[in-house]
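This week, study the protein below.
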Amino acid sequence: MSNFIKQLQAWITHKTPLIIHTNPLLILAVILLTGYICTKLARKLHIPIVTAQILGGIIIGPYVLNIFPKNAFAGFAPITDFALGFIGLTIGSHLDFRKLHNAGKRIIYITIFDVIITPT
């Protein structure tokens, strides 16, 4: 029992992750469950689903809940690349040249603002 309490205290102080010995299926299950919950919350709160899922990833990541070790996600790199490509494809499929042409100045201003603010 004292080992459990020591492990819990180390997790609360962010010295160690909650689950030290990870199983890839457990990690995948937690990621999918978090995504599902964040999708449902996003629909109720009327915010973009991708934004809610990113926030869910930050919450279960090493800087907030610290559930899994940082190296536990290394095996998911191909899945991450596929997911980012799919997100880009989905966003690109919603673009319309006429809408982009009308919003040209706004897009340029936003791009310049992002380029200046992001490094700072």
In short: The mean pLDDT is 84. The CA atoms of residues 17 and 66 lie 5 Å apart.
